[in-house]
Amino acid sequence: MKVTYEPEFARPDLPVPLSPLDGMPALLRRCVLGLGRPGFARAYLVSTGWALATGSVALAGLLLPGRLRAPAVGCAALLGAYLLARTFALMVFERRQHAFEPRWLEAQSEVLRGHEFDVLRFTVQDPDADAGVPRLYDLTRPGDVRELLHRQDDERVSGAFSRATVEFAYWVGGGDRLAVADVRRELTELTFRTRRSEPDGARIRFPEARYSGRPDAGRRPAKRTYWTLSGPVLLTVWAPA
């Protein structure tokens, strides 16, 4: 069963899916335990409510007259049996989710590493002008690309390291809104891959990026992700003439 998101939906805060299940186990998890996502903390809180209800019915059974005591005790026994079964099932599904989460994060990280984002803006800050205005380069213009590649070669020889900022777009929500993120690297750390076809925009890719789980208040399993865009940065640009 495919549980990773398609590359075009790559973004920092992806919802972590539940471990894939079929048939009766899936029905039990969804309908009986009310788990449509990895919200195990809330599920245990609901179990606490069931425990209080069971205790209240059992106490009422001790205080009721003789002819009503038996039905109340029987009801408390049924609630207790359900509570035990619910708690056991939650423990089993939570353990399964713990095992599934790192495998899913690695699989989704592979999707992220292979995805190219559209570059919106590329600027370079001179090493000796930190407070100055960064130089803007259009990565779809051969002249700008040629100048940028020459600058990169010169800095590798001279040892002067300017700072590059790449702003790129990704889809958020259901894929109906665009958001902007940026990464910063020394210019000499960037890898440019040139192409000779007519450009429809520059692209950026992160071959060593990865997703990690972001638990709520430290609670595991995680319900959402965050990404780490560390490591190499690969930019696809139009080849200069």
Description:
This protein is an alpha+beta fold and 241 residues long. It folds into 2 domains: 15-113; 117-238, no CATH class. Helix content is 41%, strand content 27%. It has 4 helices and 9 strands. It has helices spanning 23-32, 40-63, 66-113, 142-158; strands at residues 117-125, 135-137, 163-172, 177-186, 190-195, 203-205, 210-216, 219-228, 233-238. The strands form 2 sheets. Strands 1, 2, 3, 4, 5, 6 and 9 form a 7-stranded mixed sheet that branches. A hairpin with a 2-residue loop joins strand 7 and strand 8 (219-228). It is rod-shaped and about 95 Å long. The two termini are 47 Å apart. The mean pLDDT is 86.
Summarize the structure.
The protein has 241 residues and is of the alpha+beta class. It is built from 4 helices and 9 strands.
Write the layout of secondary structure elements.
Layout: H1 23-32, H2 40-63, H3 66-113, E1 117-125, E2 135-137, H4 142-158, E3 163-172, E4 177-186, E5 190-195, E6 203-205, E7 210-216, E8 219-228, E9 233-238
Parallel strand pairs: 5-9
Antiparallel strand pairs: 1-2, 1-3, 1-6, 3-4, 6-9, 7-8
Helix pairs in contact: 2-3
Number of strands: 9
Strand count, sense and closure of the main sheet? 7 strands, mixed
Give average pLDDT, whole number: 86
C-alpha end-to-end distance? 47 Å
Helix content: 40-55%
**What are the secondary-structure elements, in order, as H or E?**
HHHEEHEEEEEEE
DSSP helix count?
4
List the domain count as a whole number.
2
Which keywords apply here?
241 residues, alpha+beta, seven-stranded mixed beta sheet, 4 helices, 9 strands
